[in-house]
């Protein structure tokens, strides 16, 4: 899936990297999913966390985790679907976890999205709080979605603190002041391919200022492909370009970025 636009960053020896957030169940991957997973693994993408965003995708994520040894699943309901959720969904998610605990490593993505407002704010907030409680009951780290809802996101997370099992602020897009609030809650910051874009100085500043020990990497595939594939379908292999950009910003090696972010992911998700 690579092109000659820019040489693929190369992990050496037995080094590996983890994609903490991808949507492998989406239809954009259906024709060549196995090839995508193998291609990533051949270049050091040792594990991919595929994300549940509603009941149906959560079930598909678990099925993928059962089929492929390098895939782990999360479950949950995205804020876009907040107004369509019901008590039966919570019962089903509870059952899905307890019948598949070896395949599910996290809860989410959950949170708030005020950019598109597919569901009213009050319903999003109620669902977010309820899902944080369920994640705690299940003993799972949380994967947080936040778009244009910084204040309410932090307030709800603070009210739910301490988050005993930790979590990730997915696809981080805030500034350094917001990053500090996230880190104070004990969450990790997930860096997407956006960091490779020329017009992302705010995210690049956050990456420069926070320690690698507080960071994980993600593709958010099939969305947000890094440079030089911007605008095309993203895939786990391309996380190497994100890692290389982080290494450049941090003035360290690709190997060190891979080592530390993978360690952070493994500690959080307990692979």
Automatic annotation (TrEMBL):
Recorded GO MF terms: DNA nuclease activity; hydrolase activity, acting on ester bonds; metal ion binding
Domain of life: Bacteria
Keywords: Hydrolase, Metal-binding
Pfam families: TatD_DNase (PF01026)
Keyword presence, Hydrolase: yes
Gene Ontology CC entries for this record: cytosol
Keyword Metal-binding belongs to the record: yes
Family indicated by similarity: Belongs to the metallo-dependent hydrolases superfamily. TatD-type hydrolase family.
Family annotation (NCBIfam families): YchF/TatD family DNA exonuclease
Record protein name field: Hydrolase TatD
